[in-house]
């Protein structure tokens, strides 16, 4: 595998999709082959699973089913999209990946970070990102930015507060693989910061 796998993580409305688009544009303008993708989703089957997971009508879904559906969606995504692109030597930029499950399902829902990480390592045959960019901002501001809330965004405010803290500590414990950026700034300022962290990794990727 010779490509580069970059993931954006963070709370809802923190600007991940916006920054994925900005980074992808900058890398393409620089001549790189880039696959932009997102979770849950990224393939036909994974997008169908996404609709089931996020449908606010599915209030009765139990936490373990939720974790398994995210993992199933991720298995599809990695098998059909991410790994083939990395094998070609492309750059893959994903809006969320397995840390979303470790944090939302493992810690947020209380299923256990280790159990959820193991499930997802199995689902993905151990594929980890080269760099994860965590966008950090006050929960209130992020949730105010999202339109109609999905089933996860409707989770208690207290869970979203804990999620922010978990992302902050995850990033601080492994600085070789994570960077925590203040997302309460202009889109341009954040995009410049992102690029500065990605550029040193571009050596092997097409
Ligand atoms: P996420 O993917 O993390 O949910 P989005 O990128 O979809 O977040 O952004 C949520 C909303 O906030 C969008 O309307 C987007 O245009 C806006 N937004 C994103 N980044 C910023 C920023 N740095 N400053 C102000 N608004 C932003
Ligand atoms: P997403 O579409 O990225 O929402 P947003 O753009 O608002 O951040 O993700 C949908 C929701 O799914 C979001 O609330 C986070 C949640 N999620 C998990 O709980 N576990 C996961 O593994 C993933 C990928 C997302």
- Stretches where pLDDT is under 50 for at least 5 consecutive residues are none
Largest sheet: 5 strands, parallel
Strand order of the largest sheet: 2-3-1-4-5
Q: How many helices?
A: 8
The CATH architecture name reads 3-Layer(aba) Sandwich
Small-molecule binders here are: adenosine-5'-diphosphate, thymidine-5'-diphosphate
CATH topology: Rossmann fold
CATH C-level name: Alpha Beta
Which whole number gives the mean pLDDT? 95
Shape: globular
Percentage of helical residues? Answer: 40-55%
Number of strands: 5
Structural class: alpha/beta
Query: Strand share of the residues?
Result: 5-15%
CA gyration radius, whole angstroms = 16 Å
Number of domains: 1
Oligomer: single chain
Which properties best describe this structure?
single chain; 206 residues; alpha/beta; Rossmann fold; five-stranded parallel β-sheet; 8 helices; 53% helix; binds adenosine-5'-diphosphate; binds thymidine-5'-diphosphate
Summarize the SSE layout with pairings.
Blueprint: E1 4-10, H1 16-29, E2 34-38, H2 44-54, H3 63-88, E3 91-95, H4 98-108, H5 113-123, E4 131-136, H6 139-145, H7 157-173, E5 178-182, H8 187-198
Parallel strand pairs: 1-3, 1-4, 2-3, 4-5
This protein binds adenosine-5'-diphosphate (ADP) and thymidine-5'-diphosphate (TYD).
Thymidine-5'-diphosphate is lined by residues 12-13, 16-17, 39-40, 54, 70, 95-96, 100-101, 104-105, 146, 150, 152-153.
């Amino acid at each position: 595998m010779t490509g580069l796998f970059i993931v954006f993580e963070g709370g809802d409305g923190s600007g991940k999709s916006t920054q994925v688009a900005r980074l992808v544009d900058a890398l393409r303008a620089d001549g790189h082959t880039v696959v932009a993708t997102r979770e849950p989703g990224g393939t036909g089957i994974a997008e169908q699973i996404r609709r089931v997971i996020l449908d606010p009508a599915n209030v009765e879904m139990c936490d373990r089913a939720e974790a398994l559906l995210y993992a199933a969606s991720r298995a599809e995504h990695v098998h059909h999209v991410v790994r083939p692109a990395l094998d070609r030597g492309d750059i893959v930029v994903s809006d969320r990946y397995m840390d979303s499950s470790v944090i939302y399902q493992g810690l947020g829902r209380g299923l256990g970070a280790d159990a959820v990480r193991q499930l997802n390592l199995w689902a993905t045959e151990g594929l980890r990102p080269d760099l994860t960019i965590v966008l950090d901002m006050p929960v209130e501001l992020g949730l105010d930015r999202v339109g109609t809330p999905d089933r996860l965004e409707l989770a208690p405010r207290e869970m979203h507060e804990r999620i922010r803290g978990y992302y902050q500590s995850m990033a601080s414990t492994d600085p070789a693989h994570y960077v925590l950026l203040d997302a309460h700034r202009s889109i341009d300022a954040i995009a410049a910061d992102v690029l500065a962290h990605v550029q040193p990794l571009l050596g092997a990727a097409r």
